[in-house]
Structures are given as structure tokens and as C-alpha cells.
Amino acid sequence: MVSPPPTAVGHPASADQLPPEALALATRLFDAARNGQIDILEQALRGGLKPNMTNGKGDSLIMLASYHGHVPLVHLLIRHGADPNTLNDRGQSPLAGAVFKNEEEIIKALLEGGADPTIGEPSALEATKIFRQERFEGMFKEQIEKLGDSGGMTPMGTVRVMVFESVRMREY
């Protein structure tokens, strides 16, 4: 099997071109994000770690920290330039994941960091309806206004919410 050529700046084009030590370090860093090990990531960020690093599924450090409820780590990552709007390979945002997990403090931290409730599939705004977390809608609408977004749900998001509502109605 022929490996793809390195990228234009001389970096490997894929993870399989990285040395085993680099892969082991990346694994430790993603585990640290999942486990809320702020000391490990703080040291790595001060040492030059790119805050928007993603794993093989496209999950960023802030996605993993958010999904697992690590508020101080989310704040740290944002302070170091992590983008709270980075979507993973499935089109999911950290904010929508926080809605799914009902992580109010994470939601607040992401919004303070500039998270956009209208991006992703489903968007965080759509997720409030899908997962019956409507209490977050007010915060999201304020953020949409602050960001100057046209706001609201995408047409596909509206269809998705209607389907979920239809299924819920049949459950009763």
C-alpha cells in the first residue's frame, strides 16, 4: 500500500505516517480531555499544542472536554484559542453535545467562548427540541442575536424536529 505524500508544509498527510511516540502522545492528550486532566493539557498548550487538534473521528479536544462535562478544561481550551464551533466528522458541535448531555455549565462556557447554536447537524438549537431541553432556547436566541446570525433552524433541522415530535406523539 502506498502512503499519501506529506502535506505541502512537510507534515504527515495521515496519522498512519506518524511515529508511534507521536500517536501515543496524541492518545494521552485526547484521554486527558475526556478525563478532565487539566494539568496535562495546560502544560501541553503552554508548550505549543494546537488547541484545535482532532482525533480520527474529528473530535476536537474541546468536543471531548465538553461532552464529558469538564468546565474548567473547556475554559482553558477557549483561552488558548480552541474553536467552540469545530464540528466533528459527523457534523456535531460541542454545543449540541452539551445539550444532549444536559450540561448547563458547559453550555454557558461554550456560549461565552463564542459558540454558535445554529451550526451542526443537528444544531444545538435543534437539539433543544429533539432532546426536550427547551430551557436552553433563551440562551441560544440571545447568542444568535449577539453573533448577528440570521438565526433559527435550517429547513432540514425543522424536518428533523417534526419527525422526532411525530415519533413522540405515537409513544403516548
Automatic annotation (TrEMBL):
PROSITE patterns reported for this sequence: ANK_REP_REGION, ANK_REPEAT
Assigned keywords, A-Z: ANK repeat, Repeat
Pfam annotation, one family: Ank_2
GO biological process: protein K6-linked ubiquitination
Molecular function in Gene Ontology: ubiquitin-protein transferase activity
SMART domains reported in the protein's UniProt record: ANK
ANK-type repeats, residues: 57-89, 90-122
Keyword Repeat: yes
InterPro entries named in the record: Ankyrin_rpt (IPR002110), Ankyrin_rpt-contain_sf (IPR036770)
Keyword Ubl conjugation in record: no
Family annotation (PANTHER family): ANKYRIN REPEAT DOMAIN-CONTAINING PROTEIN 39-RELATED (PTHR24171), BRCA1-ASSOCIATED RING DOMAIN PROTEIN 1 (PTHR24171:SF8)
Stated name of the protein: Ankyrin repeat-containing protein
Organism, as annotated: Endocarpon pusillum
Lineage of origin: Eukaryota, Fungi, Dikarya, Ascomycota, Pezizomycotina
